[in-house]
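Per reviewer request, we include the raw input and output of the structure prediction for the construct analysed in the revised manuscript.
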Amino acid sequence: MSDKEPVAINRAKTVLGNLESETLRAIIAERMDLRAVIAALRMRRAKQDAPSNPWALSRFIPHIRTNWSDPHFRLDNRLPWLREAVMLMEQQDPLGLERHILGVTFRQLNRHAARHQFDFEAVVIYVLKWNIFDRWARSDAAAAARRFEALAQDALGDFSDISLQETA
């Protein structure tokens, strides 16, 4: 563990404590859970023992420590994305793992977005989704363009007669 983890953990705790929005707290907590599980997988892959000191902020930290030797930390029922993440890590496919994690995060954001239309949370979710699009674009520009086109057409819904090409 580097010197940065305690600082990041304290910063996240401060942010979570100051947020009034239950949705934004849930989004941050889910993201912290995901990061903690992926970090634990990487530590275990590097043949490290289960860390005893604070190394992440997640509700799963005690569970991960207790189930360190289980391939999925016995979390695969609660985190259905975990099996594929472990498989991609075992296949040494970092790009596939990154895409999988981005997909998981995108689906989590979509779940929250369904309850927010024209409020602050909707704006935050929109920005977070665009960050994911940006990361997808940097990893595979052609696939990202196709995905963006499909998502944009889906977002247009009843206005499907509008072409994105015409507005560019």
